[in-house]
Design goal:
Elements: E1 2-3, E2 11-12, E3 18-23, H1 34-41, E4 45-49, H2 50-55, E5 64-68, H3 73-85, E6 89-94, H4 103-114, E7 120-123, H5 128-136, E8 137-138, E9 144-148, H6 156-168, E10 172-176, H7 186-195, E11 203-208, E12 216-221, E13 234-238, E14 244-246, E15 249-251
Parallel strand pairs: 3-6, 3-7, 4-5, 4-6, 8-15, 9-10
Antiparallel strand pairs: 1-2, 10-13, 11-12, 11-13, 14-15
Helix pairs in contact: 3-4, 6-7
């Protein structure tokens, strides 16, 4: 028996390593958790989508790095298992949080299919919805739902059903993957569905590239939200019936005002 390479701290033989699925948050090192940074520094191999790896390049200078393009998630995960099975400590990088629309689920699905004995560790990161909410003020202070508008893996009819359910229940709604170059109509349909249950003056916050150098923040409303620039780097947060704006911030009350005197 010998220690895993680069001091990852696990006993292993040459037949087994480990896969760590690491969330890097919005991308910058300032918002990387200490646990995520430690995992990256002690890895033998780091695998990920090229854009995400470029954002943490300062931690990868002495690492074996395997990059790939979008839509190659299965290939990246398969490579992670191949390397871990040869005894390597592998970090699979995921933007945001790896357990929210990201790589942790696929890693586990493949592990189930392979009946793999490779240890898997998930290290959380700051999710896009958290980063965007922080930039907008406090829009998620009450119950909320996140819905991805990408129908690549989920039927569009299912997504529409979920939009109806969340809107009718008065959840604050965070829309992931709202619009791409090819998929331009889904955000329009989502808005139409939500407007069946909410007024056009309902606050809407749109954050693109949250906490990155190209960040764009827009606060608008349901009636005019489609006039804003919305793309695959955007997260759209639609308020509920109590959400309001104040000094350029978007706020959803938790209910304290109904229970307590807020002025001293």
């Amino acid at each position: 028996m010998e220690k895993c390479h680069s001091g990852c701290g696990r006993e292993k033989n040459m037949a087994q390593g480990i896969i760590k699925v690491v969330g890097t948050g919005p991308g910058g090192l300032d918002h990387l958790t200490p646990a995520a940074e430690k995992a990256l520094r002690t890895a033998d191999v780091v695998i990920g989508y090229r854009t995400y790896l470029e954002l943490i390049g300062g931690l990868l200078q002495d690492k074996e790095v395997i990059t790939s393009s979008m839509m190659q998630e299965v290939e990246r995960c398969a490579k992670a298992f191949e390397l871990a099975e040869s005894g390597r400590c592998v970090v699979m990088v995921s933007g945001g949080d790896p357990g929210i629309y990201a790589m942790a689920g696929l890693i586990y699905e493949i592990a189930v299919e392979k009946d793999s004995k490779i240890p898997i560790e998930v290290i959380p990161g700051l999710a896009a919805v958290n980063s965007c909410a922080a930039r907008l003020g406090a829009p998620l202070m009450h119950d909320f739902a996140t819905i991805s508008l990408s129908d690549l893996l989920t039927p569009w009819e299912v997504i529409k059903k979920r939009l109806h359910a969340a809107a009718s229940a008065d959840f604050v709604i965070a829309l992931y993957n709202p619009k791409s170059k090819k998929r331009t109509e889904h955000i329009k349909t989502a808005r139409e569905i939500i407007m069946r249950y909410r007024g056009g003056n309902t606050p809407v916050g749109i954050v693109s590239g949250a906490m990155r150098s190209d960040e764009v923040i827009t606060i608008t409303d349901l009636s005019t939200m489609l006039e804003a620039d919305i793309n695959m780097q955007s997260t759209v947060i639609v308020g509920n019936s109590t959400t309001f704006t104040w000094h350029g911030q978007m706020i959803t009350p938790r209910g304290y005002k109904d229970k307590y005197t807020l002025e001293s």
